């Protein structure tokens, strides 16, 4: 792990780091020492590890839970170079979608391919940041919507340190198989008028989680509309209950 | 309005009263004075105004929100006499259900008939308790599941004093018409394995609310299973935001 820069604002310490060639951002309480819960935030498609939506949630989790928060650039996103194979696959997919093919199946296959890389990357980042004295080996939570759900479900299924997950805007077609291996508490968000994930696919993914403690929250709005702020309040309380 | 009895426990004052021949229970903070939010709790089928599930929620709303809470015996429930017409209709319905008819349409028609009586009764109880110095003309909320939703939706649609409602375990077939007249914030609960309200009917009722601010919470479990305690926490915060 290599530290690239540190800064502080409003009681939150912000570290930019790399683990191997994977760039990540870590937020912790200003004067933290000792082990604490660690929440991984998975950013959305086309976003990056310090996008405003990530930063907004990271600050809340640090301030309200005293947690550490880490966010990782997905391949081809943020400070990472263009990923030739993924880029070629995405371009080919777009051509097939333009020619009338069902985008869901193509996006599903694409996310599965990316997850084969991100699951071990994210686990390596967890290993690295948990060696820090002010992060430590506390319980881990996961928060991710859309791409952050598509990559998050395989991660949560694979990683036993994760004790609770807020997921959403994902589809059963993409993730039902991995979801069936998840037994930790899940809070699952649906945008009721999602134009990219058909409603029945959202509900199918919620159905697929094996977690006995799971709850679905649906709100009006499209795929990219801002989530209601009360859902962030709810996520804070969800992690407070389970981490 | 006639007071029948008062008692106190754990900082909550409990008044049993009648408005005309309608029995109701009112809970307020022990030493309350002045206007405050008033939350109407509609009990479930076969229950009554002081059933344990009602009492549990009433105490939380009083303690956490400083609210007044009122609960009203539905016709034929609690301290009310058997209602001959409703009783005959219910008996006839049961015979038709036993003979293989779809229960949803029958229950829907039955609840619509009962609501014609309960909407004016509940409005009269609101009028009466809001004359009390320690209740006053504050904002009104509504909480009701199952029968409390079936009767609650027409009440919330009719009563402009209601500013926010937690509803659930109800069906679009029963209540979509009235729901389309509701524009106040709604938190809507679904039991994901409800054996009495088909899932698509639950979702249809959520769809039907005209409220721009509405949120659906679904949790595993059947129609009569206990709601997760975090949903009561959520209801407290929902009313805190909107009342």
TrEMBL record, chains A, B:
Molecular function as annotated in GO = carboxylic ester hydrolase activity
**What keywords are assigned to this protein?**
Hydrolase
Recorded hits in SUPFAM superfamilies, A to Z, give:
alpha/beta-Hydrolases (SSF53474)
Top-level taxonomic group = Bacteria
Concerning its family, UniProt says: Belongs to the AB hydrolase superfamily.
Q: What PANTHER family does the record tag this protein with? A: DIENELACTONE HYDROLASE DOMAIN-CONTAINING PROTEIN-RELATED, POLYKETIDE TRANSFERASE AF380
| Protein name in UniProt | Dienelactone hydrolase
Organism encoding this protein:
Actinoplanes philippinensis
């Amino acid at each position: 792990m290599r530290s690239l820069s540190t800064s502080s604002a409003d009681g939150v310490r912000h570290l930019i780091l790399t683990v191997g060639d994977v760039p990540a951002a870590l937020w912790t309480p200003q004067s933290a020492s000792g082990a604490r819960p660690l929440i991984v935030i998975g950013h959305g498609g086309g976003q990056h590890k310090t996008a405003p939506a990530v930063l907004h949630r990271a600050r809340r989790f640090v301030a309200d839970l005293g947690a550490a928060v880490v966010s990782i650039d997905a391949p081809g996103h943020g400070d990472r170079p263009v990923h030739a194979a993924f880029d070629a696959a995405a371009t080919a997919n777009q051509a097939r979608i333009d020619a009338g093919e069902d985008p869901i199946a193509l996006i599903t296959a694409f996310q599965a391919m990316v997850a084969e890389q991100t699951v071990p990357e994210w686990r390596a980042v967890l290993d690295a940041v948990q060696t820090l004295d002010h992060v430590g080996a506390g319980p881990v939570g996961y928060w991710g919507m859309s791409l952050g759900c598509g990559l998050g479900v395989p991660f949560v299924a694979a990683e036993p340190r994760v004790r609770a997950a807020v997921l959403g805007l994902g589809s059963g077609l993409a993730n039902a198989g991995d979801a069936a291996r998840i037994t930790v508490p899940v809070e699952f968000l649906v945008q009721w008028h999602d134009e990219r994930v058909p409603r029945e696919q959202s509900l199918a993914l919620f159905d697929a989680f094996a977690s006995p403690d799971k709850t679905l929250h649906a709100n009006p709005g499209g795929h990219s509309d801002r989530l209601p702020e009360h859902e962030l309040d709810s996520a804070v309380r969800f992690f407070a209950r389970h981490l």
